[in-house]
Amino acid sequence: MKTQKLNFTYLNNSKVVNNILKGVLGIFAVATFASCVEDGEGLEQFEAKPDGEALAQRFEDNRLNAVQKFTMDAAVGGIITGSQGTQVSFPPNAFGISGSPVTGSVTIQLVEIYDKASILLNNKSTLGQKGNGDKEALKSQGEFFIDAKQGIQELELLALAEVRSKPKLAAEFEGAMQIFRAGDDLDSEDDWVEADENDDGENDDAKIRDAQGTIGDMISYQYDLGDFGWTNLDIWYSYAGAKTEIFIDVPEGYDGDNCAVFLSYDGESNALARMDVWSSTLEMFTEHYGLIPVGQEVHIIVVTDIDGELNYAIQGTTIVDDHIEVISSLAPITQSALESLINSLP
Q1: Are residues 271 and 300 in the same domain?
Q2: Shared domain check, 184 and 257
Q3: I need a labelling partner for 110 at 20 to 30 A (CA). Which of 180, 301, 317, 328 fits?
Q4: What is the pTM of this model?
């Protein structure tokens, strides 16, 4: 990290300030929450703590619950349509094992993600990795998991399938999108990388298609799918002005193992990157790339699981140079209520 002036937006309950005070006063105390307290009869009552394993399980359960299943005749092919409007078209004899087509019924799995709450609660952040290893935020117009099985046997895709995103109003059109991939398994946590579905050596662009709509002109994106797994309609979040690092100072007892921190870009419908770098020296979260625009308005979202209950904090701020944002506390919330809060962010 660079050694220079740090900008604090809020100092209550900050580990940075606490550590300075401890050094000055010469106090060598344990800087964690008390794990237990004594009651009136001398019995220990243990305090529930943030649980990273439970949070990871919640993310996994959310993905499983998001899976939609369809049945198709492998020899005939056909079209499936998700509950949000995503369409996937399979040509005849497109499903196979070891290069040979299968016959009979196959089960197709589809997950469609179009909003920030679903991005966060399924832990499918819009963080992309470039060919040189650099990481940068993406702006998404849809994330999709598509897979096929016959019984318990995983199938491969022998011919290109066609994916069409849900239709949207032409007035909300974002412009050109590229295709990104992020692993073959439902539980993959890989970053998004540029896709080459037709193996021509170039990153694939999504095509723009007119779509039928009942209100005004509608548009959807269409692209070819060459392999099962996660794909995403994205463009890089590019910014020409000054950029900076950002650090998130979470409450005592929280760290990279027991909570998750996300950065939501205001004014971007689906730009939400996970800040998955934990500095054990600074005891703060940061990000890989140091490319947050100075002056950008954002919302920091922190989530964890405590005693089986979702806990959260959402804090809005405007990015300044060498930004440090202090999160003083988290509060319990239902998952549906958190979804509403996230999707109502600017």
Answers
A1: yes
A2: no
A3: 301
A4: 0.84
